[in-house]
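# nightly structure sweep
# worker-07 picked up a monomer target from the shared queue
# config: single-sequence mode, recycle default, output format = structure tokens
# input follows
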Amino acid sequence: GIRDKLVTGVQDVCSSDLAGHTTLIASCKQFSVLKEMILICEEYEMHNHINVVIEAMDSFEITMENLIEVIEASEELGEVQKYKELSGDLLKRAVNFSRCNLASYQVILNFMQRICCKADSAAKIFTALKNEPNAVLKW
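# output follows
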């Protein structure tokens, strides 16, 4: 399936000198693919170029459409001791994005409707916002 294709692709990238692959990785439009690349590199001990993937993840734009994907990636990466700091950084970015973009009840309702089947991840961001001193909800 898709994981097998990712494994093959990551093995190809990590065994090369990354000539031409850096642009490909940086242009990735799915946060979950970058997360999978990191986990596959870790699983198969392909550490040569993992920083390129992490840099792409660090520069990835968080949007309302991928917010839950970022939170889920943060949780999954946090299960690997080596990536706990990266996981925490991703969650901070998600909270900061949420603080600025979930500022009205209409936006929150639209967001909740879009992600209704991912309630655990949504609860995580709302819990973080509840404890955020700079979060202001506009009614």
